[in-house]
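Quick check before the chapter quiz. The format below is the same one you will see on the exam, so make sure you can read both the input and the output lines.
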Amino acid sequence: MFSNINKLAFANIKILEKQLKESKKMSNKLPWYIGGLLLGLSILLAVTLVKPVGVSTQFVIADAIIWNQVDDSIIQKDETAKTGYSSSNKYLNKSGGKYAKNAAKPLNYSFVFVIAMIAGAFLSSRLGGDKAEGQEKQMPNVWRERFGDSLVKRYVTVFLAGFIVLYGARLAGGCTSGHMMSGIMQTALSGYVFTLGVFGAGIPVAMLMFNRKGN
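Here is the expected output.
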């Protein structure tokens, strides 16, 4: 009986040591509740002062900018169009050529907003928080433990996952920024449906991929 108690006590000590190590790692990071409040405030300001935040649309705009450089006939000035621009591509031409205009004149709020997000994330990674070291720079340990050290497998999987997420976002007419954060803030039904879909699909898939059972 005493040996079992000792084993249990030893196991609890190990768990506490692990938790202490994790808390030390988190000590240099912005607390989640402060980050959440700042994010909420940022979106509130954006919605109040300019317009709701949306990100995935700007991938389409970026593609159109590159496409237009290769084939300058894809976007044309059109005085009869609502925005003054039209495109032979139906997707870019919708809403009176709205996407066509944004691609022709990319220095607009939405596109600059996404560029600023990338720049802000880079600065945040440089100025605060823990820095990844060694193999952790190439892939997280949770991935390595499950799928091995192959960089090719990691990069191919991440690329395909990103493609599926972006394709789904365009089918849904928005992403986590447009539907989940901006949408719910405006009490849009689509925002709630989108959020339920994201968590309803994402959590089971993550548990299956990483072989986790709720622990």
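If your answer matched, good. The chain has a mean pLDDT of 81.
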